[in-house]
Amino acid sequence: MTSLAANRPEPPAGQGGGDRLAALRAELTRRGLTGFIVPRADEYLGEYVPPSAQRLAWLTGFTGSAGLAVVLRDKAAVFSDGRYTLQVRAEIDLSLFEPLHLLDLPPSRWLARVLSPGDRLGFDPRLHTADQVEPLRRACARAGAELVACADNPLDAVWVAGRPAPPRVPVESQPLALAGRGSEDKRAEIAAALRADGDDALVLTAPDSIAWLLNIRGGDVAHTPVPLSFAIVYADASVDLFIDPAKLTTPGLADHLGPAVRTAPPEALDAALDRLGAEARQVRIDAAAASLHVVERLSAAGARLDRGSDPCQLPKACKNAAESEGTRAAHRRDAVAMVRFLCWLAAEAPSGHVDELSAAAQLERFRAMGDLYRGLSFDTISGAGPNGAIVHYRSSPATNRRLMPGDLYLVDSGGQYLDGTTDITRTIAIGPAGIEERRRFTLVLKGHIAVARARFPVGTTGSQLDVLARLALWAEGLDYDHGTGHGVGSYLSVHEGPQRISKVGNSVALQPGMILSNEPGYYKTGAYGIRIENLLQVVTLPVLPETERPLLGFDTLTLVPIDRALIEPALLDPAETAWLNAYHARVRDEIGPLLDGTTAAWLAVATRPL
Hints:
Distance between the termini: 45 Å
Structural class: alpha+beta
CATH topology of the largest domain: Creatine Amidinohydrolase
Shape: globular
Strand order of the largest sheet: 4-3-2-1-5-6
CATH class of the largest domain: Alpha Beta
Oligomer: single chain
Number of strands: 28
Strand content: 15-25%
Helix content: 25-40%
Number of domains: 3
CATH superfamily of the largest domain: Creatinase/methionine aminopeptidase superfamily
């Protein structure tokens, strides 16, 4: 099987540069365009982008996971969010590109200021959703300019030398024992939902939905085991799968897919969309996830669009018994790796010889020793001292810090296993911790425990629970600027919808089988960061005589100790202390027998009752 660890998308060589910018401007002039928008996304609009599609990095040097560039004749800007304020300035040439904040000055507002009447701003409709394009179109209109959809991407015309080849990692089947449901059964469920809504077909543009539906996995992007592909699902449960045929070479794959799944190369998608329109079909499309190109191609061809959510998302999120059993097994193996790492860190870090990069590498080595390990589920966030206060920090040789006595060390990491996906954050005191650090860590812990202990009626959404994680912090005028929890897949994406725990409103009710993270935090800029993250699974609670309505709760999947050196016991109430002691006892009982003697002895001390 192909390892995800072997397919990390290294940024294109020779980051950015004036020659590349000049070449793009010359191409735009040749096409009669005043400017062009370069997003980070590829045509699949997913979280990870293969090296062959990293256009933003090639042009500007910026390698963050969110952002875009706008190139005009006499100016250019790179927009990123607050996670990358420092990184973008370090990676781009500030004499060529102006770094701007996506929220403080959105591209649409900036364009309305700088465009002139008669300007023609180009964009690639395959790389944007309709929702993303509309504010850009309005901005151009306000300036008297025109937003122009390009038939082909002008940047591709100048990125020729040294461009990586598109990924062609062989597709593999996900065994029924791990998937828990056959693809035929899943397709029948989706087809029935289409018929109930009067839809003739569904266009799927999210590779993880396709991977779940067909019980296939791949390695086209780092960290997420999906084959890049598109699909059309019909009301008779048949599927047209649009994928590079070079990926379909695994023995037995054709039998796994079966005769109801027809394959065609990606370039055949447009003709298939045209046929749906010519036949006046009613087509379900997730307009929030599909590219503008797909939506407009269907509409122009005459299809009747049923704009709704991706119907694969909810059943994918509600893990079945086999997936639940698999993820618990994966979390036990992941816990063994994490506990070995924490034991190693306790012995090595006080010397001052361990740095962020070497710590992350050591953790990955421990994970790689586990059965069914396929690679990291995301790039490890390994932040010491002030670097831990950068929420999505990524250590590099330029920023790498040693873990020194007095530091808080934040490590957020996860693994992809054939039977599950993990994600865990621990904050560790390197030597004695200060009073402020211990107090604020304990406030974060109180929020973490409140979510883990929550009991809530059927129909409750994650946004209704978010306040539980923040109450203790709010009481002291503190908060954190990220969500409390995201969904997690089953050997799929570590960031999965539609469920989440966040201040942002979410109408999707939590349902049994869903897996979410529980990760409140606190970040003091220039000093330290704190985050405590476990994964939880929604479960049905027993019905008691006094229960008036069905209740749900959470089962904690992650089994790794929380640093006792950072806890102020006096700040915990008896119920919180009991929860922590019970959690640590469970960690000790389930993981201790899987460890060598030295590590088991360390774990016994790390999990002793408060």
